[in-house]
């Protein structure tokens, strides 16, 4: 069919479609800045909501457990609605989805400032803001990764470093806001602050995309309307990846490491106090671990993108080391040595930060760049239950044994078990980088990352599953 739109002489259609994109960044560097800001307003804000904990306990006269469900509901909602955000991006446009998520995140906090009971906070700060956060995080991460190939892990490390930085900055800021404007005024200001996610989403450039092959086959004219609608929903959610062994294995590994990953953030301070250190010493251990976490994210991304080792191998290493250092945290304090506890905390923080960026960077290598949006959303949903399970399990072990030794040992064991699960991925022990796709591939096959091609089979196999369809940039496959 003849294209009726005028086109410059000698320019190929794919060049016109991707004229604003370059293999290694271009406008993607602007999106890295947007990811930096948006993640600070999602996870940095969630980490700092503990400032309101005492205020809510005193105002609503409820138990600490009841108040704790506010932040737990927000975290669970963020992960639960991540597949929805990915599906909406596949069906419509990431820019609109992220901007809508920013509006919902701000709206939830603004409505929370008018709460008269805990149920209101569950619905506003928990469900509404959590829904907004779910529509923001996965689309922003996938959009940034789509603009990079060799530097993908580094840019994620830079973008995620804002979580630690904002945690340091937000805690004293939120405390000042509470003291100055009370908790209602502080939440109102935080709602306005969260609206800055909207311009971050506006920086995403809309692109013309072909519909995924699975979605095209789901036209209402083909088969019953209900079956066609279900096929369309499944294609937007990328549900077929749940039937592929590499993705299921990887999701299981990430779920296992997620069980123990967050335990030190909740219980390291309490363990340090129980070990006989002052409250300021205990708090400083966690602050130092947070600082080394930031360094680990950036250093890991830089080292991974040098290409000396495969990212999945580095992820296995950092996960195993993080698990070992979690086990050593209570052991290092048995002798009463604060220096030993501090050193172990620094090493744990570095390793825990180092693995974070790699968890997301490995996904497109397993499922391919065009399908990573839905795959990231499903991964967030699958691991959400493990994240909520880890902390209560750790608390239960402390109640049974009387100290945190068993809690940290079991938590670290889950990370080591996750690293062992990674070794069962297909062709895990291959040290060679996969060859670049043949130059003669059709445009839809060029969206497949070389790593994905190697793990899933030949290009023709990928073609039959429709892996390469969608918004993948042809230039991204050039290693």
Count of DSSP strands: 2
Strand order, main sheet: write it out: 1-2
The count of helical stretches stands at 21
CA-based shape? globular
Biggest beta-sheet profile: 2 strands, antiparallel
Order of helices and strands: HEEHHHHHHHHHHHHHHHHHHHH
Mean residue pLDDT: 77
- Helix and strand content put the structural class at mainly alpha
**Radius of gyration over all CA atoms, rounded:** 23 Å
The helix fraction, in percent, is over 70%
C-alpha end-to-end distance = 33 Å
**What is the quaternary state of this protein?**
single chain
- The low-confidence parts are 1-23, 210-221, 433-479
Strand content bin: under 5%
Structure description:
The chain has helices at residues 13-17, 28-48, 53-60, 64-80, 82-91, 94-112, 118-145, 152-194, 197-202, 213-216, 225-237, 245-261, 263-274, 279-304, 311-332, 338-361, 363-367, 372-401, 405-422, 450-456, 459-465, and strands at residues 21-22, 25-26. With 479 residues, it is mostly helical. It has a two-stranded antiparallel sheet. Helix 8 packs across helix 16 (338-361), helix 12 packs antiparallel against helix 19 and helix 15 packs antiparallel against helix 16. The chain is globular.
């Amino acid at each position: 069919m003849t294209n009726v739109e005028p086109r410059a002489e000698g320019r190929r259609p794919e060049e016109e479609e991707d004229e604003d994109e370059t293999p290694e960044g271009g406008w993607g560097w602007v999106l890295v800045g947007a990811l930096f800001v948006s993640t600070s307003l999602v996870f940095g804000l969630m980490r700092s909501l503990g400032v309101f904990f005492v205020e809510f306990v005193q105002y609503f006269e409820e138990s600490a457990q009841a108040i704790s469900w506010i932040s737990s509901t927000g975290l669970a909602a963020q992960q639960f609605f991540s597949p929805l955000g990915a599906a909406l991006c596949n069906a419509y446009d990431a820019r609109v989805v992220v901007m809508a998520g920013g509006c919902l995140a701000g709206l939830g906090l603004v409505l929370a400032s008018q709460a008269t009971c805990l149920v209101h906070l569950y619905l506003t700060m928990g469900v509404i803001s959590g829904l907004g956060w779910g529509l923001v995080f996965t689309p922003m991460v996938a959009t940034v990764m789509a603009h990079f190939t060799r530097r993908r892990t580094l840019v994620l490390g830079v973008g995620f470093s804002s979580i630690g930085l904002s945690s340091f900055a937000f805690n004293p800021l939120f405390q000042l806001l509470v003291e100055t404007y009370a908790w209602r005024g502080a939440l109102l200001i935080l709602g306005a602050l969260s609206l800055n996610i909207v311009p971050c989403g506006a920086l995403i450039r809309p692109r013309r995309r072909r519909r995924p092959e699975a979605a095209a086959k789901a036209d209402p004219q083909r088969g019953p309307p209900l079956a066609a609608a279900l096929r369309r929903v499944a294609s937007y959610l990328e549900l077929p990846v749940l039937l592929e062994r590499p993705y299921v294995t990887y999701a299981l590994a990430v779920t296992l490491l997620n069980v123990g990953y967050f335990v030190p953030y909740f219980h390291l301070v309490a363990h340090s106090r129980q070990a006989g250190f002052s409250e300021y010493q205990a708090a400083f251990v966690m602050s130092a671990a947070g600082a080394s976490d930031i360094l680990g994210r950036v250093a890991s991304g830089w080292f991974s993108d040098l290409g000396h080792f495969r990212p999945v191998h580095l992820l296995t290493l950092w996960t195993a080391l993080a698990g070992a250092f979690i086990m050593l945290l209570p052991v290092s304090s048995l002798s009463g040595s604060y220096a030993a506890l501090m050193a172990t905390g620094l090493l744990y923080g570095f390793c825990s930060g180092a693995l974070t960026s790699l968890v997301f960077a490995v996904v497109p290598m397993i499922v391919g760049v065009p399908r990573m949006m839905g795959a990231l959303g499903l991964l967030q949903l699958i691991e959400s239950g493990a994240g909520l399970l880890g902390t209560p399990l750790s608390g239960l072990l402390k109640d049974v044994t009387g100290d945190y030794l068993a809690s940290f040992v079991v938590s670290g064991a889950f990370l080591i078990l996750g690293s062992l699960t990674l070794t069962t991925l297909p062709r895990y022990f291959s040290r060679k980088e996969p060859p670049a796709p043949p130059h003669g591939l059709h445009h839809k096959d060029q969206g497949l990352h070389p790593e994905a091609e190697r793990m899933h089979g030949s290009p023709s196999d990928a073609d039959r599953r429709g892996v390469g369809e969608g918004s993948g940039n042809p230039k991204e496959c050039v290693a």
